[in-house]
Amino acid sequence: MTLTSTSVLTTQTPSHQHTSAGANAPVLVVHNVSTGYSSAPRAIEQISFSVNKGERVAVLGPNGAGKSTLFKAIVGLLSFNEGDISINDRDCRTSHAMVGYVPQQNQINWDFPATVRDVVMMGRIRKIGWLRQARRHDREVVNEALARVGMGDKGDRHISDLSGGQRQRVFIARALAQEADVLLLDEPFSAVDANAEAEILDVLDRLREAQATVLIATHDLNLAATRFDRVLLIKTSVIAYGTADEVFTAEHFGAAYGKQVGVFKGGDFFVVDDH
Amino acid sequence: MDFNALFIEPMTYQFMQRGLMAALLVGGISSVIGCFVVVRGLSFFGDALAHSILPGVALAYIAGADLFFGGLIAGVGSALGIGWLTNRGRLSEDTAIGVVFAGMYALGILVISTVRSYSVDLTHILFGNMLGVSPGDILTMIVCGVIVLGAIFLFYKELVAQSFDPGLLRVLRMPGEGLRLLLLVLIALTIIASLQTVGIALMLAMLTTPAATARILTRRMPSMIMVSALIGMSAGVIGLYLSWHLNVASGAAIVLTATAVFILVFIGDRLRTLFSGAGS
């Protein structure tokens, strides 16, 4: 276990939970969602928040806070009976292909006999349709997706030959090829080096210019504080949601991380997170 | 021995002609579906499923019914049963396989033990006999082959995507679970088509060895399937001839031919990496 300490200096006074939409209409609306697994039936409880088009949101919380659970509910990997999730005003349980999901890297078999282009094309299988083959338009979309993540010249590489950052970018390209409205990345910065982190952030910055809506679950508090429009801090329920200045307070982090938080006189605090 | 005596003369016998067709069919079908078995790590499932067919075959034998349909019911039933038990992590796959299939195999042995002198047919189910293939068996293989290869062709991109990342199918709201069950049923059909030639005990080799060899030689699924089919069919034919000339069991000869190819390719690949590694 590597112990890293992240210190975030802030002198802001705590503000109230911020859920009001900005000038843009919200793309993703999560309303009172509770769900979980048979071992933990209520891994997340009464989660509500909304994200506007083109926003980049960091989802923070300690281990077991429900970040992955929340993502799985949004993308459809986990069913939920309580609450509603809608994307562009359509219920995400009945609509499809609106959410792109980049899973944690250790859940993928990197020895699978496929090239980068093969994997990105998989994002289009629903658009291509049953009993049909990829057409020229599909190949163009795949090439464009690869170009947007800076992998335009690496389409014929085997996926086992990729670096950590490239692997993430391939899956981001797959989500782009899917023509999803919202992208969810589950801990893309875990288990990658600083170079890969910079690569991923660079891609995300380019996507932001194209008005992509992106949610990222992460343990990296510094990134969350500096590179995102909004921060969602959860521990089973929503602790705080708003800009980094609003969310990063000793009070909020104390509620989420408990004894992992130390507070200095004057309100500055630090979080010890074992990631 | 000249060419004629080695290759042509055996084929003057009708049972050898049928054996050759069976070898090509079984080698081709099982090595194509075998690619999915290998990339998904379903070897244990394939082996267990082959064994679970035994009670169906044994009961059909006792009832005087068609062995194929007995095996089909037991095989597809076991495949769907395992699919149901492991759906959404109700039971881990290896646990469910261990429990269900060992039970089925035991049931098969139990049924066989009630028959005082079970005839050649049942031992053939266990070990296969390429030279006892009937025209009806060939027809069975062709029908199974058309279904298996046809389904893989029609649902190719979905089956590959589901094998690589099952989560993607659910994100896309596509019936990933149905595709998984389809694959399990196709494996069951392949095993039943191959029983007469390689038998239950050696079925696993036909599902894994050609595909594992092809995996070393190729980097994409389409080429892996092509190479695997080529290796599977070649092993079938070479094994059949070896079985004829050396007077050994055909199923074992075919499997050992495939194994020999695997060993050669594996060693060749290690040497290549070694030398290319030393060169750079």
Care to describe what's here?
The complex is a heterodimer of chains A (275) and B (280). Chain A is α/β, with parallel strands linked by helices. Chain A has one domain (4-273): 3-Layer(aba) Sandwich (Rossmann fold), CATH 3.40.50.300. Chain A is 29% helix and 26% strand. The longest helix of chain A is centred in the last third of the chain and has 16 residues, at 194-209. Chain A is globular, with a radius of gyration of 19 Å. Chain B has a single domain (3-272), classed as Orthogonal Bundle (ABC transporter involved in vitamin B12 uptake, BtuC). Chain B is globular and about 60 Å long. The N and C termini of chain B lie far apart (47 Å). The mean pLDDT of chain B is 89. The chains are: A alpha/beta (275), B mainly alpha (280). Chains A and B meet through strand 7, helix 2 and helix 3 of A and helix 9 and helix 10 of B.
What's the arrangement of secondary structure elements?
The complex is a heterodimer of chains A (275) and B (280).
Chain A: E1 4-8, E2 26-35, E3 44-52, E4 56-60, H1 67-75, E5 82-87, E6 90-91, E7 99-102, H2 116-122, H3 125-128, H4 136-148, H5 164-177, E8 182-186, H6 194-209, E9 213-217, H7 221-226, E10 230-235, E11 237-242, H8 244-247, H9 250-257, E12 261-263, E13 269-273
Parallel strand pairs in A: 4-9, 4-10, 7-8, 8-9
Antiparallel strand pairs in A: 1-13, 2-3, 2-5, 5-6, 10-11, 12-13
Helix pairs in contact in A: 2-5, 4-5, 5-6
Chain B: H1 3-8, H2 14-39, H3 43-52, H4 54-63, H5 67-86, H6 93-114, H7 120-127, H8 135-154, H9 156-164, H10 166-171, H11 176-217, H12 221-246, H13 250-279
Helix pairs in contact in B: 2-8, 2-11, 2-12, 3-6, 3-11, 4-5, 4-6, 5-6, 5-11, 7-11, 8-11, 9-11, 11-12, 11-13, 12-13
